[in-house]
Amino acid sequence: MRILITGSAGFIGQSLKIFLANKGVEVISYDPKDDSQNSVLDLQNLKSKIKDADGVVHAAAMSQPKLTYEHPLDCVNINIGGTANVLEALRQTQGKRPWMIFISSREVFGQAKILPITEKTPRQPVTVYGMTKAAGEDLCRIFSESYGLKTRILRFVSVYSGENDKLDRVIPRFIIESAKNEPLTIRGTGEEAFDFTYIGDICQGTWGSIQEVEKSQKLHDDFILSFGEPVSLKDLAQIIIEETGSKSPIKYEQASSFSSVKCYADCRKAREILGFKPKVAIREGIKLVVQEFQEAGII
């Protein structure tokens, strides 16, 4: 099996590339960090790379909250335009057309009024990034209905990993600060809660989706992948302090305008159809990240 991964140099893409290679999959990397020509905005280049693939995992996106907030037009162009280009490249492929798995986000639900979120939760994004992911989902559905493309949507919830993660995100940042006994700054009250999901579980869930889309005759479907248990930021900070043996204090600042308050999910559909079984609870996941950071010399 040959799978092209857009955003293959990103923190999710890198982990997925290693995971799939260990499964015997031939991975086609597609990321401008590896090759400046590999932009999702370059339709012709996409077409030349996609034609030999069995499927595409479209993970390329502008996703950092602060960056997408400050550069909304870039976010729209890359996330919506890039997704449209990948789908169009698939549509123009001669012969058997590859399937596509679109990596989406809990951000499409905005501040959901009823928790846990499920695939039936109304999508009401409140950020430009969330809107671009919702638009990408709609494009997938429409290309499936109009052109017969096989597409799947995977909505990830608060993914974290080790050294491949963006080090300014909350879990890496807290670990690095705690290793230095520096204050851990929570932007909010500390009661904000999310079901943080370890990258290994995300890779397993994505592999389940790849196996399902390969076998199924269904053109389009959507799934949520998360651990399913909310952890408050205050509890997260305390766990990290304990696991690093730190003396760091916890301090609080006003939340930013692009911050979420609470989100956790019910992944029953993914469990039943994809065989998704997340195994890494937050404390175990923090231990894994701390160990990886230590081995990489990050802390």
Automatic annotation (TrEMBL):
Source taxon at top rank: Bacteria
Gene3D superfamilies linked to this entry: NAD(P)-binding Rossmann-like Domain
SUPFAM superfamilies registered for this protein in UniProt: NAD(P)-binding Rossmann-fold domains
Domain NAD-dependent epimerase/dehydratase, chain residue ranges per copy: 3-217
InterPro entries the record matches: Epimerase_deHydtase (IPR001509), NAD(P)-bd_dom_sf (IPR036291), Sc_DH/Rdtase_CS (IPR020904)
Protein family (similarity comment): Belongs to the NAD(P)-dependent epimerase/dehydratase family.
The name this protein goes by in its record: NAD-dependent epimerase/dehydratase domain-containing protein
Native species: Candidatus Nealsonbacteria bacterium RIFCSPHIGHO2_01_FULL_43_31
